Amino acid sequence: MLEKYLSGHQLDAIEKNRKSLGPDEQVKANESWAALKAEVRAAVAKGVAPTTAEGKALGARWKALVDQFTGGDHAIEGALRQMYHGDEALKRATGNDDQMVDWIDKAIGR
């Protein structure tokens, strides 16, 4: 799926970042994503504004995980944002619906 949105060089960079974590850190990152997504969904459901301290803290954690995945590459991050905003199959697979993605974008300050 990523191949539709990222160049071969970008895919290689993501794979390099993944491998640099090692298996234990990869498990921790996956657990961190699952926990953070649940917290963001709960905040959205409670009506927490993304610009509040709570929202900004969740946004900062999200951004840190994105940076870990992308190596801080803004072009990769932009392509992934486009993917999450436009790919309905990905939204269903990850549970990252438009409302959640828009909320996180605002929490991060985009």
Radius of gyration: 14 Å
What is the SS-derived class? mainly alpha
Domain count: 1
Give helix % range.
Answer: over 70%
Mean pLDDT across every amino acid position: 90
Distance from first to last alpha carbon: 24 Å
The main β sheet shows up as: none
> Based on CA inertia axes, which overall geometry fits?
globular
Q: How many E-type strands? A: 0
Question: Strand fraction band?
Answer: under 5%
Number of distinct helices: 5
Order of helices and strands: HHHHH
* Model regions low in confidence, pLDDT < 50 over at least 5 residues: none
Could you please describe the fold and organization of this structure?
This protein has 110 residues and is mainly alpha-helical. It has helices at residues 8-46, 53-70, 74-86, 88-94, 98-108. The protein has one domain (2-108). Helix 1 (8-46) runs antiparallel to helix 2 and helix 2 crosses helix 5.
Structure described in brief:
The protein has 110 residues and is an all-alpha fold.
For the structure shown, list the relevant keywords:
mainly alpha, 80% helix, 0% strand
How are the secondary structure elements laid out?
Layout (H helix, E strand, L loop, with lengths): L7 H39 L6 H18 L3 H13 L1 H7 L3 H11 L2
